[in-house]
Design goal:
globular; 6-stranded mixed sheet; 108 residues; mainly beta; Hypothetical Protein Aq_1857, Chain: A; 8% helix; 3-stranded mixed sheet
Length: 108
């Protein structure tokens, strides 16, 4: 079965540019950790790239995913959302069978 790397939307790259991530030597790290109310949770943070990271670039910005998290994020879409409840990076993950209301916890 062919697994595709995650995609990052133009809006997410634009938001990273707005906050000056690359200007400050930072990338957006998206990782999957055990825990949360559904078994796994997303960790999204500004960080520095590591050698074995998958690097997704656009608009002069970079999103990185470590090799352990990559299988959990196959064919996912990393986006930026601005809603009444706040603005945040969000992940649309077709591998998740359930997720919690906060959108940061999921199960497979």
């Amino acid at each position: 079965m062919l697994t595709l790397p995650p995609k990052v939307t133009e809006r997410a790259f634009e938001r990273l540019a707005e906050i000056g991530a690359s200007e400050n030597g930072k990338v957006l790290r998206v990782a999957v950790e055990g825990g949360g109310c559904s078994g796994f949770q997303y960790e999204i943070d500004l960080d520095e790239a590591k050698e074995d990271d998958l690097k997704l670039t656009g608009a002069g910005e970079t999103v990185v995913i470590d090799s352990v998290s990559l299988p959990f994020l196959a064919d996912a879409t990393i986006d930026f959302s601005e809603e009444l409840i706040g603005a945040r990076f969000v992940i649309n993950n077709p591998n998740a069978t359930a997720s919690c209301g906060c959108g940061t916890s999921f199960s497979i």
